[in-house]
Amino acid sequence: MRIILLGAPGAGKGTVAKLLTEFDGSVQISTGDILRSAVKEGTPLGKKAKEYMDRGDLVPDSLIMDIMEARLQEPDCRNGFILDGFPRTIPQAEELKKLLTKLNIKLDFVANLDVPRDVILDRLTTRRTCCNPECQAIYNIKSNPPKEDGTCTLCNHQTIQRDDETEEAITNRLETYNQKTAPLIGFYEKEGLLKTFLSLSSKDTVADIKKTLQS
Ligand code: AMP
Fold first, then answer.
1. CA 183 to CA 178: how far, in whole Å?
2. Does residue 88 have an active-site annotation?
């Protein structure tokens, strides 16, 4: 499959993307994960991105496009990809359109995960992430907790609340989403690629996306 997952922070894009990779071998490409690894490793990209990320602001479009132009040409993308957290702005969407035309790649559709704001706020403040960059498993202290001592059930590393999941950063991320990313819904509607899924449970959303792919 070749799809874009669109949705506010906390809409469940990461969880849905991971479940979809088990379906047909498509790879998940999360710009957030790529940037977090770069920050951890202290690469030049990570050093540039960290201050934006900690505030809950978007990283400049040019940095993101450089990452994505290279990433989409890696061999593992040939079987398909699920874009998670990219594009995030109209300029990114326009650049992506040009890039896909150049690479002769056609998208199946853009899945817009629609989640009520109170559900999103609750999810973001209760989310914990495994600190191991190789794992990054996502937990929820209410519905899917890590082990009692706070370690990851998969790799035993500590789970943490991300720097951008403080209340202040969350408020900023949601505001940024409304201003910069929500306009992509109209962009992809005009392109005839938009499918909206009311997304309260990741498993149901994955089933709905699979059905849409098969129809
Ligand atoms: P995420 O895990 O997708 O919520 O991304 C975490 C943070 O990484 C965001 O709050 C942004 O600072 C940055 N980021 C991720 N993807 C993008 C993107 N496509 N454009 C700009 N910034 C991004």
1. 8
2. yes
Per domain, the residue ranges of the chain are: 2-116+180-214
Tell me the fold of 2-116+180-214: Rossmann fold (3.40.50)
- Ligand 1 binding pocket includes 85 (Cβ within 6 Å): yes
Which region, left, alpha or beta, applies to residue 80 given φ > 0 means left and ψ of -120 to 50 means alpha?
left
Give, for all 215 residues of the chain, the pLDDT tens digit: 999 999 999 899 999 999 999 988 899 999 999 998 899 899 999 999 999 998 888 999 999 999 999 999 999 999 999 999 999 999 999 999 999 999 999 999 999 999 998 888 888 889 899 999 889 898 999 989 999 999 999 999 999 988 778 778 888 889 999 999 999 999 999 999 999 999 988 999 999 999 999 98
Instruction: Clarify whether 127 is annotated catalytic.
Output: yes
User: Is 150 within 8 Å of 159 (Cβ atoms)?
Assistant: yes
What would you report as the CA-atom Rg of the chain, rounded to the nearest whole angstrom? Answer: 17
What's the pTM value of the predicted model, to 2 decimals? 0.87
Task: Determine whether the shortest distance from the Cβ of 7 to ligand 1 is under 6 A.
Answer: no
Q: Which of 2, 13, 18, 36 is catalytic?
A: 13
